[in-house]
Each structure stands twice: as C-alpha cells, then as structure tokens.
Amino acid sequence: NFPFWQVFRAAVPALMAGNAMLLKHAPNVPGCALAIEMLFTQAGFPKNIFRSVLAENDTAEPIIQNTSIQGVTLTGSTRAGSR
Question: What is the pLDDT of residue 1?
Fold first, then answer.
C-alpha cells in the first residue's frame, strides 16, 4: 500500500497549511511510521507538528473520536472507513 506515499500525499498539504498531524500507521509498518516522523523533524518542521502513534487497529476509533481531531484520512476497507 505504499506506506510512505500514502502518508506524504496527505501530510505535506496539511502541514504546509499549518496543521499538525497524528499518524496511526498500519501496525505491520512501525519502522515506516517512525522514519516518516524523523524525516519531518530533519526537514525542520516544528517539534511535535507530526507525530506517530504506534497502536493496533482497534485503537484507532477512540483516537479519531477525540474532539481535538479535526480531520481524518484513511486507506483501508469500506467497513473501516464507515466506522
């Protein structure tokens, strides 16, 4: 599923617009999630503007329901997206 591209296509416009981003990547690619976070840090983005959450899929729903979350992008099944 292109674990880097799927993140960059959403993250770059969001960050350039001044938004922060929280990434809950697929649980089988934690190294990709951490590498992406490191790349944004090395590129000079402010600290904590892009953060990775290493969590299983069943943890995503409570994170998304947090009132601090203003937008979500998802790559996955129709069932996952409809929840």
Answer: 66
